Amino acid sequence: MRTTKTLSITLPPEMLARAAEIARREHRTMSELVREALRDYERKNWWSEMNAFGQAKAAELGLTEADVEQAVHDVRRERAGRGPETKA
Which residues form a coiled coil (predicted)? Predict the structure, then answer.
C-alpha cells in the first residue's frame, strides 16, 4: 500500500521555473521542495501562534516585555547551573 498521495497544483510559469531551478541546483525533486516548503510554513505559523499566545498571556498577567526577557534569562542561568542574578 502506498504511503503517499499524489497532488496536482497550478503555478504561474515564472514560479514554476524558479522552483525547477532551485530543485535542479539543490539536486532535489520538486516533491522534496514542496514538502520542505510546507514544513517551513507550518513551523513559521506555529512560532507565530506561540508568540501571540505568549503576548496575550503576558498582557493578562500585567508583564512587560522586559519582565519576560528577565524571566527567560533567569531560567537559562538556572539551567546552566549559575543561579538567578540578583539586582543590587
Answer: none
Residues 72, 80 contacting (CB under 8 angstroms): no
Asked if the structure places residue 61 within a domain, the reply is: yes
Task: Name the grid cell of 7.
Answer: 497532488
pLDDT range class, residue 85, cuts 50, 70, 90: low
Structural domains of the chain, count: 1
Give the domain range for residue 60: 13-79
User: Which of 59, 53, 8, 55 is CA-nearest to residue 30?
Assistant: 8
What end-to-end distance do the CA atoms of the chain give, in Å? 67
